[in-house]
Amino acid sequence: MSLPPHGIFSLRNKAAHSQRRGLLSHAFSQQNINDCMPIIEQKLDSLLRSFNCDTSQTVDVFLRFRLFAFDVVGELFLGTSFGASEAGTAPEYLHDVDRQFLFSGIKFNFPLLATFLSQIPLSSMKTFTQGGERLAQFGNSAFQEYIQRYGRDSKRRDLLTKVLVPQQKGKAMTDRETYVEVGNLVAAGTDTTSTTLTYLFWSLARFPEWQNHVRKEMHEKLGRAAQGPYEMQALNGLPVVDAVINEALRLYPAAPASLPRVTPQEGWQWNAYTIPPEASCRAFLHTATRDPIAFPDPDVFLPGRWLEAEPTTSMKTLFMPFSKGTRACIGKSLAMVELRLVVLGLLSRYEVKLPPQTTEESMEIRDHFLVMPKSGKCELIFEPLPEGRWRRPDQTPDRRRLITAQYDL
Ligand code: HEM
């Protein structure tokens, strides 16, 4: 999944990985994410405007959420406004991310086949196998442009400035390593977030009572602020919102079978199992989060399980959609902010309904390392809520002015 040279996903040496992780993970502190709220809200605003459509039409949320998540990480890590939500179509960069994911899967599992494919002199095959190189080239020029425009110690409220902080202190990654990692972060932060949102909204459309539970909480806890602009602190105190998010993460972990690990030379003992030396292993998160002892009725969307009582030890142990340990997700805090914002932004304006064409079958999971619906889309109906009951009169112009004021540095 990583672009050459080796980046955080493919660094096998523990010390090198841990050093690289240290250089990147500080960028994701709660304070830094807080500083980026104006940028994230601006992207939320574009997403919300893209839902302003005739209600008789359906919206393909799989595409919409993908464009939103991409716009967020693109702006935060490349300093580039792709405007994908406004354009309504995926830019070429995202198609290369898709190609790179698929080709990386082949590289991991069938390295000889990958070498063979990359030597086929057909232009369509080159387009497929060289996606990673194009991403790296794009990353390089976006990075150089960023440095020219803002310098290396800009006060801009994005996350690339935070990634560059260690460089100021002389501990740095080289420029090449930096733009490679930036490419990894953009790829890692796009489809994971959008897949989670897609399955979450599909679930909410099938279990509309949970939409009302969320609205009730919004109104009790946020009042007039339910439609934003949002305060980070307020986002952290919404247990019902978090329960629906956790339940979607539990049922549909976006990366269901983590990247492969290799056992040490002496092999590995795991409970009653002896795993041979240098064997490739994966933790299958999808089955862990559907364990029937920890999660009774494991295949059913039951957000109440996160609200009824303190989660049990086995729930805490097996719930790991962001993985656990030294290679767990470093983008979790950013992802959680995005998920909460989209839930609030959409449920405070729309009732989500299920059209007949979106079925269990069309939403069946396909595992391309990251999960996606078999049909490649998820069409849902977004019906504006009647003003007064839940929804305030549209505040969009105020919202935009406020966000722009915060954003303009
Ligand atoms: C709902 C959204 C997300 C989910 C479900 C998710 C899930 C995961 C999982 C399961 C892993 C571990 C993979 C493994 O063990 O092999 C991981 C790693 C990682 N994630 Fe995420 N992720 C999400 C969002 C993000 C975002 C927004 C970013 C950054 C912009 C990000 C950056 C990373 C990075 C850099 C790693 C590798 C960490 C390391 O190897 O040290 N993720 N993610």
Automatic annotation (TrEMBL):
Any Pfam family hit: p450
Keywords linked to the UniProt accession: Heme, Iron, Metal-binding, Monooxygenase, Oxidoreductase
Taxonomy, superkingdom: Eukaryota
Binding site for heme: 329
Cofactor entry: heme
InterPro entries: Cyt_P450 (IPR001128), Cyt_P450_CS (IPR017972), Cyt_P450_E_grp-I (IPR002401), Cyt_P450_sf (IPR036396), Cytochrome_P450_monoxygenase (IPR050121)
SUPFAM superfamilies assigned: Cytochrome P450
GO MF annotations in UniProt: heme binding; iron ion binding; monooxygenase activity; oxidoreductase activity, acting on paired donors, with incorporation or reduction of molecular oxygen
PANTHER family found in the cross-reference section: CYTOCHROME P450 (PTHR24305), CYTOCHROME P450 12A4, MITOCHONDRIAL-RELATED (PTHR24305:SF166)
Similarity comment: family membership: Belongs to the cytochrome P450 family.
Protein name: Cytochrome P450
Species whose genome carries this gene: Friedmanniomyces endolithicus
Lineage, opening ranks: Eukaryota, Fungi, Dikarya, Ascomycota, Pezizomycotina
